[in-house]
Design brief:
- The complex is a heterodimer of chains A (328) and B (300).
- With 328 residues, chain A is an alpha/beta fold.
- Chain A has a single domain, classed as 3-Layer(aba) Sandwich (Rossmann fold), CATH 3.40.50.300.
- Chain A has eight helices and twelve strands.
- Chain A starts with a strand and ends in a 22-residue tail after the last strand.
- The relative contact order of chain A is 0.14.
- Chain B has a domain of 193 residues: MetI-like fold.
- Helices cover 69% and strands 0% of the residues of chain B.
- The longest helix of chain B has 37 residues.
- Chain B is elongated and about 75 Å long.
- Classes of the chains: A alpha/beta (328), B mainly alpha (300).
- At the A-B interface, helix 2 and helix 4 of A face helix 7 and helix 8 of B.
Chain lengths: 328, 300
């Protein structure tokens, strides 16, 4: 039984009276000690998914099962103790720390709320947490503005660790950091996942980082998960045209003179998604089934799945089709 | 070309100098702050020591009426033979504590209502904020005049009337800040750690509200002195023979050719208002946590 399971999650917002479905029927599960990567372009619903998974947004449909019990959305009261073991780290380490409180006090919050002992013990625990993320324990008395971006993100991670979590959702934790800080924090995350047996959900648009540290990868497009599988295999042989295009779009260090292939067109407006397969207007392999039917996520074995009719075990074309004039 | 010829860069010593100026020293670099502090401090000292400093009884009609400023009476005497200097000094005992009281009350009422509105939202928010809008719809002095006219003219009622017209500013600011800070990621993060909304409000939101509200209150002190004097000038606040500055200016207007009667109380009002405005402006700069004076050059 996996630690966190998300079934058919839907997240919807109202924007000027129009319902926007940011996440449409996403399912995923996280295992202890593993890092799952969730990749996709900006605006595809990654952050909405992240916020819903930790209970910050009430899902429009579907359910989130954390450690065997259904997660309740966050209201005005305190979160139930067992749910605090599901934590989140935010994208911007400049806005995720209170500028007026020392970082020791902010990390100590988790310990205090968890009923963690008297003052001296708490101070020692704060020091240990700071050292765990690679900061000196003497940093506890400082204010957030006295740290660099990478250090702040470490502080944010230490704060999440203060409640002894089992799952941490990281919403673009590296994208506001410079390259060397990215590498350090990425290594820290891998170490923590292995040492503390944490399940991490790393949300990112940076494929290179996800490729390096994620064990499994979920590819999201316009609110849907279109492909999932072990990272290495997905990279070696993508099973969805969108994944293929994403991987092709990464610039290669040795790709002298060749520009990465860009995907035609823009991500459509989630308020009015295209019918059928949501990717079909940009897909190089589009055929007559795509604009009319919604592809389910086909299980491909070995933990892999793809939502593309080309992977339909019954064959891409199920019945003799009348080829429409207008379809390319 | 062999690589051996390349000059090997010597590692530059990493400078770890830290300039930590004492906190007060950097405030002195702002001339307006200095002027504000000096003027306000002077007036507060005057208010405390008025009985010692005043050469004469502010109510005593001991001199020849309408004596121009001179060595006997520095600011001259008024139409009843009272020493204008003594009346100005004693006026500080009235205006400054009342302004503090008035701002304190308005701050307390406004901040509480604003925090309640921002925290609960919905119907409660609508009721509180429509009440505030109602007050905002009228010019402050006009509404205060109506309230004092209803309650009866006295300095106490003038203060109450001004509390009624001043709380909405605080309610609006506090509500806005509670709403915007409540949306920040650091509040979300504390909530995820298991803090209730109320705890997050007290520990993470309100401390961040305090700075801007304090600035507003300091700026408002000057305004309070002005409004209070204004009501007294109109005869709705301090009643004779109280030595109030606004009343003093009103008196001066009746004896326009004896310029000293109205000018000196007017100057008192002017300097106090100026002092609190300078103070508030400087406080705004100082309380900004990102401003350089507090960073002390550490980290990035």
């Amino acid at each position: 039984m996996s630690l966190l399971e998300v079934h058919d999650l839907e997240v919807a917002y109202r924007r000027q009276g129009v319902e926007v479905r940011a996440v449409v029927g996403a399912s995923l599960s996280l295992e202890r000690g593993k890092i799952a990567g969730l990749v996709g372009e900006s605006g595809c619903g990654k952050s909405s998914l992240a916020r819903a998974v930790v209970g910050l947004v009430e899902p429009a449909a579907g359910e989130i099962v954390f450690d065997g019990t259904a997660l309740s959305p966050l209201g005005r009261g305190a979160r139930p103790r067992h749910e605090t073991r599901l934590q989140m780290v935010f994208q911007n380490p400049y806005s995720s720390l209170n500028p007026r409180r020392t970082i020791g006090s902010q990390i100590g919050d988790g310990l205090r709320l968890g009923g963690g002992g008297e003052r001296g013990a708490r101070r020692r625990s704060v020091g240990e947490l700071l050292e765990q993320v690679g900061l000196p324990s003497s940093a506890a008395g400082r204010f957030p503005h006295q740290f660099s971006g990478g250090q702040r993100q470490r502080v944010a991670i230490a704060r999440a660790l203060s409640v002894d979590p089992s799952v941490i959702v990281l919403d673009e934790p590296l994208s506001s950091l410079d390259a060397s800080a990215q590498a350090q924090v990425a290594n820290l995350l891998v170490g923590l996942a292995r040492e503390l047996d944490l399940a991490l959900l790393l949300i990112s648009h940076d494929l290179a980082i996800v490729r390096h540290i994620a064990d499994r990868v979920f590819v999201m497009y316009l609110g849907q998960i279109v492909e999932e599988g072990p990272t290495r295999e997905v990279w070696a042989a993508p099973q969805h045209p969108y994944t293929e295009a994403l991987i092709a779009a990464i610039p290669h260090a040795d790709g002298s003179g060749t520009l990465p292939e860009a995907l035609p067109g823009e991500v459509p407006d989630p308020a009015s998604p295209p019918p059928g397969c949501r990717f079909h207007p940009r897909c190089p392999h589009v055929f007559d089934r795509c604009p009319t039917e919604v592809p389910p996520l086909y299980e491909l074995g070995a933990g892999r799945a793809s939502a593309c009719f080309l992977r339909d075990p019954l064959g891409p074309v199920r019945e003799p089709t009348t080829i429409h004039e207008g379809v390319r | 070309m062999s690589t051996a010829q390349l000059p090997t860069p010597t590692p530059a010593p990493i400078a770890r100098y830290r300039f930590r100026r004492p906190r007060i020293a950097s405030a002195w670099r702002q001339p307006l702050a200095v002027i504000g502090i000096v003027l306000a401090a002077t007036w507060i000292v005057v208010a405390i020591l008025a009985p010692v400093l005043a050469p004469d009884d502010p109510l005593g009609q001991n001199a020849a009426p309408l004596t121009p400023p001179g060595s006997d009476h520095l600011f001259g005497t008024d139409e009843l033979g009272r020493d204008v200097l003594s009346r100005v000094l004693f006026g500080a005992r009235l205006s400054i504590p009342l302004a503090l009281l008035l701002v304190g009350l308005a701050l307390f009422v406004g901040a509480t209502l604003g925090a309640i509105a921002g925290y609960f939202g919905g119907l409660i928010d609508s009721i509180v904020m429509r009440g505030a809008d109602l007050v905002f719809a009228f010019p402050a002095i006009i509404l205060a005049m109506v309230v004092t006219a209803v309650l009866g003219p006295s300095i106490r009622n003038a203060v109450l009337a001004l509390v009624v017209v001043s709380w909405p500013a605080y309610a609006r600011v506090v509500r806005g800040l509670v709403l915007s800070i409540g949306q920040t990621e650091y509040v979300t993060a504390t909530r995820l750690l298991g803090a209730s909304a109320r705890r997050a409000l007290v520990r993470d939101v309100l401390p961040n509200v305090a700075g801007p509200v304090l600035v507003l209150a300091t700026l408002d002190l000057g305004n309070a002195v002005l409004l209070l004097s204004g009501l007294s000038f109109l005869g709705l606040g301090a009643q004779p023979p109280q030595p109030e500055w606004g009343a003093g200016v009103a008196e001066g207007i009746q004896y326009f050719q004896f310029w000293w009667i109205g000018t000196f109380p007017g100057l008192a009002i002017f300097t106090v208002v100026l002092a609190f405005n300078f103070l508030g402006d400087s406080l705004r700069d100082i309380l900004d946590p990102q401003s350089s004076w507090r960073a002390g050059g550490e980290g990035e």
